[in-house]
Structure formats: structure tokens, C-alpha cells
TrEMBL record:
GO terms for biological process: protein K48-linked deubiquitination; proteolysis. The lineage of its organism: Eukaryota, Metazoa, Chordata, Craniata, Vertebrata. InterPro entries: MINDY-3/4_CD, MINY3/4. PANTHER family: INACTIVE UBIQUITIN CARBOXYL-TERMINAL HYDROLASE MINDY-4B, UBIQUITIN CARBOXYL-TERMINAL HYDROLASE MINDY-4-RELATED. This is Ubiquitin carboxyl-terminal hydrolase MINDY.
Length: 108
């Protein structure tokens, strides 16, 4: 029998498989589970346990920023920017969100 804590987690946790590697994406904000208004700007943490990751990545997610529209207006002929696979995985839940790596070099 599965414990109630595993069926209904107190904090949001996602197990991820990104580019063939596994990791955990999580938040310390329980409001992300129950209050859609808390999805405006929030923090996520990612840890994969891979040798190249020396510390947990602290990401800031902004679901209402539209900076990509400004970039497209400035130079419509430029090549599209490539985003790390982890950012693209996050955007499967929050489409169009911007991800700030807060000083960590993006990986994956």
C-alpha cells in the first residue's frame, strides 16, 4: 500500500528524464500545488546527481514575461536561439515561461 504522503506530496516534485539523464525538479513552495496565482514568478530547484553538477541548480520561472517577443522584433533575420533541454522540459508545464538560471551555467 502506498503511503498518503506519496500519493499527495506536500511539495511539488517532478522526476525528469532530460536528454537521457534523470533528475529531480522540485519547489519548496507548497502553494504551487493548490494556488494557480503562485505560478506567476516562482523558484524551482534541479538536481541530477551527475558528476558535472556540483550543486543544486536554483531556477527562477516567470510565466508572464514576454522578453522573447522583444528579441524577435529587434532582429527578425537572426537564427533562433537554442535553449537547454531542461528549460524546454519546464515549458511543457508552463508554456512560454522564461527561465533564469541565477548565475549557474545552463546544462542539459
Amino acid at each position: 500500500q502506498v503511503s498518503p504522503g506519496l500519493r499527495t506530496p506536500r511539495l511539488p516534485v517532478w522526476l525528469c528524464s532530460v536528454s537521457g539523464r534523470h533528475g529531480v525538479l522540485f519547489s519548496t513552495d507548497s502553494q504551487l500545488l493548490s494556488n494557480w496565482k503562485s505560478e506567476r514568478i516562482f523558484h524551482l530547484y534541479f538536481y541530477s546527481g551527475q558528476q558535472e553538477q556540483t550543486q543544486t541548480a536554483h531556477l527562477t520561472i516567470d510565466t508572464h514575461s514576454h522578453h522573447w517577443e522583444e528579441v524577435q522584433r529587434e532582429d527578425p533575420c537572426s537564427q533562433q536561439k537554442r535553449y537547454p533541454a531542461l528549460e524546454m522540459a519546464i515549458r511543457t508545464k508552463w508554456a512560454g515561461a522564461t527561465v533564469s538560471w541565477n548565475g549557474t551555467d545552463p546544462f542539459f
